[in-house]
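Database export, one record per block. Field names are fixed; values are copied verbatim from the stored entry.
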Amino acid sequence: MTKKFMFFAFIVLLSVSVVGCATRLVDFTIISTKNIDLARGADFKRGPARVQGQDTVHIIIIIPTGTPNIKTAIDRAIQSVPGAVALLDGVVTAKGWWIPYIYGQSSYVVEGTPLIDPKLVMAKLQSNFIISRLNKKGDLIGTQYVSKTEYDSIKKKVGI
C-alpha cells in the first residue's frame, strides 16, 4: 500500500510542478507588419486556409534565452503564404510552460487568414531565379523567388 501511495504522490507532485499557460492577448480584424497600398484593397484576395506564425524562446533552469517577439510571429505567418500582405480575423496568443529549475518555453502565436495581393504572387511567379536555403545537414529549409539583381548579388557574396 505504501509503494502505491508513494507512486501516486510522486505522479501528483510531478503533475503539479509542470506549469503551463495560454493567454489570448488580442483578437484582430486586420494586422500587418508590411506597408500595404490600401488604394488597391479591392484587388486583394482572402486566402483559403488559416495560417500560423510563432516566435519561441527557451527557459533553461531559470534563465530565458531571449524575449519572444509578436512582430516576428506575425512576419512568419504572413511569409508562409506567397503574396500575403496581412492577416485577417485572427488572434494573438501568449503561451508558455515550465518544469521548475529544468526547462521551459515562452512564445507568441499569431493565427489568421492571409490577405493575398495577386500582383505580388504574379511578380514572384514571373521570376526565373530561385534561391534555396539548406541547413548544415544539407536538408532543404526553404526556397524564395528573387529578381536577377538579387540573385547576382547573392551569387557574388557566395563566391560563385
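Remark 1: Residues 28 and 90 are 5 Å apart (CA to CA).
Remark 2: DSSP finds four helices and eight strands in the chain.
End of record.
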